[in-house]
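Supplementary notes for students who missed Thursday's class. We covered one full example, reproduced here. Read the sequence, then the structure, then the short commentary at the end.
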Amino acid sequence: MAALELEGKIAQKMAAQSGQSARGSWARQDFVVEYMDGNFPSSVCFSAWGEDKVNDLARYQVGDKVRVSFNIKGREYNGRWYNDLRVWKLSPAGEAPRQQVQDVPSYGAAQAASYGPAAAAPAPGFDDIPPADGTEDDLPF
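Structure (token representation):
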């Protein structure tokens, strides 16, 4: 599975939770990141599991821009499914990722420019309208 990453700003930090289970002690803290999805802001809630990840999150305040690297976990409980976005790395936004994802093509400026409105066909002009004398009538009736 390719690494999943998202850049945005921390909008909210929930209280850290900790406890003891049969497998030992655990720590968890949820936080919300707001990011731009097209022209509109969207929010997503992440979970920092483990004392080291909770300590990483403590370095950041609400409003800080971060890059979140995460995995998606899903589980079933009483016939319903729940998804969990688990953080495995948290870094300041703008920091280059450690490794390039190989399956995502990179487009240069010349290639990217050919996919915008500039590459669209020009709007029809007055000369493109068929004559009214009926010589080029393509209507079926």
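Commentary. The longest helix spans residues 51-58. Helices lie at 51-58, 109-113. If anything here is unclear, bring it to office hours.
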